[in-house]
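Bench notes, afternoon.
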Amino acid sequence: LCFFCSSAYVPKTEAGHCKWAEVLKDLERIKTSKDIDVSLYTADADEDEECQELVMRCFFLETEVIIQECRIKNCSKTQDVWNIWKNGNESFEKNKLTSTKSEKCKECEEYEEKNFTEFVQNFVKVIQRDCK
């Protein structure tokens, strides 16, 4: 038995590293993009805590729409959007997130469609909330 071991444990968030840190960086890069003009289902940043994972999934699903839009228009930020999508999916697969749909939580399509700028702002808020 080790009596001092527990003091060495530092939760990830306290160490200042969030699993979404890379996604946040990429979101910062794309948020001012002028060549992405698309309406996206945008979850509310203050959605119920137990819906957090489903909200995150919705945001990552919608990044696929942005990727398609960028392919058509040859956006300058295509690589950044692709990185967001890839990092999000890897995180979900690694953690095998299996939240069952709660009655409280909305389906992605039930959220209001908002423009790209509002979508990114809410996405950032949701991630920051998850990283606290």
